[in-house]
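Notebook entry, structure prediction.
Reason for the run: the old model in the group folder had no record of what sequence produced it. Starting over properly, with the input documented here first.
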Amino acid sequence: MDFSLLLVVAVAVTGLIWLLDSVWWSKRRQQGLALVGGDARGRESGVASGNASGHEAGGGESAATRTTAKEPWLVDYARSFFPVLLVVLVLRSFVVEPFQIPSGSMRPTLEIGDFILVNKFTYGLRLPVTNTEIVDLGEPERGDVMVFRFPKDPSVNFIKRVIGLPGDRIRYEGKQLYINGEAVTKQLVDESNIDQLNEVLLEENLGDTTHPIYNDFRDPGPQMRELRVPEGHYFMMGDNRDHSNDSRYWGFVPEENIVGEAFAVWMHWNGGLPSFSEVRVID
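New structure, fully documented this time:
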């Protein structure tokens, strides 16, 4: 289900109903109100004098007026929901959008069940649904954690770390990442999980970004010859290097598939009670 499309349709429908009521339907109701009022005054002038008769005529006019002036329920709902839906659409499309992490490919930076916030204007403003860029505000930088539309199926959102920028030469051999012929440095942090989970925690220095990664030294992992990142594309990798479906397997991410930069974890939920103890900025 494309929530962006549903939201755009909801805003368009409620806005159209409100607009039609403002320029057409409300005027017709006012015209009907005037006709009812004139008819009631005509009946009142032909009634013989007397309190009972006069009260009956006045009561008839009031009931007819209320019936004609009453706003249709559809217009009432559209008037109430349109502003709310419009604000949600603007915030979600151009400011910030929430996502949930469904897999462990970005461990240890992001865990399964983390709820994250994605900045939608870091890399430029884009129209909802079509994802067309309308204002260029910046480009992804090496080390950014980025959400993007999966090139093989744009209806699915992926999250990985930006490794290669347009024009970069990327190679991955023996669990060592090389960018433009230089090995990316990393330091051992913790190997206590090597027996239980077959993973070693390291810290990688990627440009101006220092972030944790996992390597599984019992698994040889993929070996990738040197590739050049095409213009307008990016090479992405997960921080859980030996358990991540990323650019090593399916190629580059085109610029038009960018959704935004992940910048914070605001909640964690694994099926039990939501936890806010892990609120943090994403490195």
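Summary: The two ends are 30 Å apart (CA to CA).
The old model has been moved to the deprecated folder.
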